[in-house]
TrEMBL record:
<protein>
    <recommendedName>
        <fullName>Adenylosuccinate synthetase</fullName>
        <ecNumber>6.3.4.4</ecNumber>
    </recommendedName>
</protein>
<dbReference type="GO" id="GO:0005525">
    <property type="term" value="F:GTP binding"/>
</dbReference>
<keyword id="KW-0658">Purine biosynthesis</keyword>
<feature type="binding site" description="in other chain">
    <location>
        <position position="377"/>
    </location>
    <ligand>
        <name>IMP</name>
    </ligand>
</feature>
<feature type="binding site" description="in other chain">
    <location>
        <position position="392"/>
    </location>
    <ligand>
        <name>IMP</name>
    </ligand>
</feature>
<keyword id="KW-0479">Metal-binding</keyword>
<dbReference type="Pfam" id="PF00709">
    <property type="entry name" value="Adenylsucc_synt"/>
</dbReference>
<dbReference type="InterPro" id="IPR042109">
    <property type="entry name" value="Adenylosuccinate_synth_dom1"/>
</dbReference>
<dbReference type="InterPro" id="IPR001114">
    <property type="entry name" value="Adenylosuccinate_synthetase"/>
</dbReference>
<dbReference type="GO" id="GO:0005737">
    <property type="term" value="C:cytoplasm"/>
</dbReference>
<feature type="binding site">
    <location>
        <begin position="236"/>
        <end position="238"/>
    </location>
    <ligand>
        <name>GTP</name>
    </ligand>
</feature>
<dbReference type="InterPro" id="IPR042111">
    <property type="entry name" value="Adenylosuccinate_synth_dom3"/>
</dbReference>
<keyword id="KW-0963">Cytoplasm</keyword>
<dbReference type="GO" id="GO:0000287">
    <property type="term" value="F:magnesium ion binding"/>
</dbReference>
<dbReference type="InterPro" id="IPR027417">
    <property type="entry name" value="P-loop_NTPase"/>
</dbReference>
<comment type="similarity">
    <text>Belongs to the adenylosuccinate synthetase family.</text>
</comment>
<comment type="function">
    <text>Plays an important role in the de novo pathway of purine nucleotide biosynthesis. Catalyzes the first committed step in the biosynthesis of AMP from IMP.</text>
</comment>
Amino acid sequence: MAQRKVILLLSGEIASGKSTLSKRLEEKFGFKVLKTREVLRELATKKLAGKIPNRDFLQKYGEELDKTDDGKWVLEAFKGAFSAVTTEGNLYLVDSVRISKQIEHFRAAYSYSVYHIHLLASPKSLESRFLHRDEFSSVNESEVKQLYYQAKSDYTESRVSLLKEDADLAIDTDLCTKDDVLIRVASFFKLLAPTNNQLVDVIVGGQFGSEGKGQIAAHIAPEYDCLIRVGGPNAGHTVFEEPEKHVFHLLPSGSYRNQNARIILGPGTIINVDKLLEEIVKYKIEDEFSRRVTIDENATVIRTSDITKEQKIKKTIGSTGQGVGFATANNILARLKADDQHKAKHHPKLRAYVGDTLEILEQMYQSNRRILLEGTQGTGLSLYHGLYPHVTSRDTTVSGCLSEAGISPKRVKNIVMVTRTYPIRVGGTSGPFNSIEIDFDIIAKRAGLNGGELKAKEKTTTTHIDRRVAEFSWTMFRKACELNSPTDIALTFADYFSVKNRSARGYDKLTTETRQFIEELERCSGVKVSLIGIGFDYRAVIDRRNW
C-alpha cells in the first residue's frame, strides 16, 4: 500500500470482536489507536471528581456527550490525541464509534481518508463471548449475565447494529476466525504484501554437493535482511574466517558474516538439536538480547534412534549417517499415527527459537526486505532427479528448497547455481559421476598444486572421509540447468585448473584456459558465470554480478 492515509472507524455491538481486531491491527500493521472507552473513562472520572465510573455510567455518560455536541466529542478526542495526524504515520483507528453522527463528523473533517468497518455476530455468539471474557473469570455467571443484559438495554447500544448499513465493509465474525477477520481487513486496505514481489535469491548446488556453496553464500550474505537454510546436518558448508574456518551444518553460511540478518530454519529442515545449539553458541549467532534465529514449528527433529539406524547401513550408498533419511521417513509415517512429537514445537531445547516462519517471511515481503535462501547438497543428489539409489532423502533442486522453506517460486529473483571445476562424491560406494573418475594427483599435476595438500583438504566436511573426484560432466551441468533455471552460475575451485588463478583479482587475470571454460559454461547454460571462486580466503571470489 502506498502512503495513503487511513482513518478506520470501527463499530459493532458489545463482544463483536472490535477490541481484538483493534489490538491485532496495532500490533501487526502499526495502527495508532484511539479507544473511545478510555476517552470516556477519563472524562467521566473528571466529572466524578476522581471516582472510577462503572460500565453503566460510561454508557449513560457517552449518550449525554452525544446529546451535548451531536457526537462530535469523538472527533475532538481524535484530534487531541493525534494532533500531528497530517505529518506522522498514515494508519489510524477509532475503537469504536456508536452513532452515525460520530461517523459523519469524521467524514466531514477527513473526507476520503475515512473508512468505516462494522463487525457483527448472532445474539447467541455475542452473549457467549461476553460471558467468557477473562475479566469475568472470577465473577458468578448470573452476575455477568445481568451485566450483559443491562449493557444491551442501553438505547444507543440497541441501535449500534444499524451502523452496518453505513459501513464500507461489514464482517460477520460468526463465519470467520480472528485471523480471518484480520486478513479481510488488511486485504481491504491493501496492507498485505503483494504475492509476486521478487525479493528472494536462491543458492543451489549443481553437482553432488561440496560445490563451495558456503563460501559463495557467505560472500553475498551481507546484502540480505534474512538468511534461510533448509535441508539437514548431513551437509556441512565451510566458510573462510580467521583464525579458523567456520563449518555450518544447519545455520545459513552467512550467519556470522551478517550479524544483523534474521535467520530462519524453514518447515522442511531436519534438525539435530545438539548440533544446532552448538553452532549457535560456537559462532555467537545469538545472545540473550538478540533473537535472530527462528525455527519453524513444523521442522523435523532427528531422534537418536534415527542416527543409530542410519549408522548401521551408511556404507551401502555412502551416506553420512546423520539420521536425516530415517527422520524424513519417520516424518512421513508418523502422520499415519497422528503423531507429531518429532516436530520442533515439542522439543524443550528449541522452545526459545520456535515460531511461525511464514509470518516472518510475510513481514519481510511487506517491507521489501531481501532474503537469501541457501540450499544444501547438490542437484545430482536429488531424490527424484539424481542417480538413484545413490541420492539423498530430499529434492535438492531449487524447487525442492523453495518448498522446504515455504517460499513461492514467484518470489524468486536470482538463482545462483554453484558448480565445481571437478565434481566430487563421498568416498566409497557413493555412486557414479556421469563422467570419468580421476584422482586428486591428476588434478594437482594439471594445476601445479601440491597433491598431498590437495588430498588432505579434500575430505568430507561432515564425516571427514576421503572424497572421490571426476572430470566435469557437461551432461550433468546441462541437466542441472534445466532443473534449476539459474540466472547466474558460480564456478568454484578455479585454482584446480591452475594455481595461477589463486592470485587472479579479476576475470581478465584468470588463465586463458579458465576463461575459455567459463565461456563454454555460459554457452551451455545461457547465463553469466558471475561468481568465480579461486581459492579459500576473504578475497577468493571474483564477483562479476550486475545485481
